[in-house]
Amino acid sequence: MALIGYARCSTVQQDTAAQLDALAAAGVPSERIYSEHISGAAPFSDRVQLQAALAALGPGDVLVVPKLDRIGRSMEDCVSRVAELLDRACHVRTLDGRVDTLGLGKMAKLVVGILAAAAEIERELLLERTEEGRLRALAAGVKFGRKHSYKPAQAAHVKELAAQGLPHRKVAAMVGLSATTVRRILQEV
Question: Which pTM does this prediction carry?
Answer without folding.
Answer: 0.61
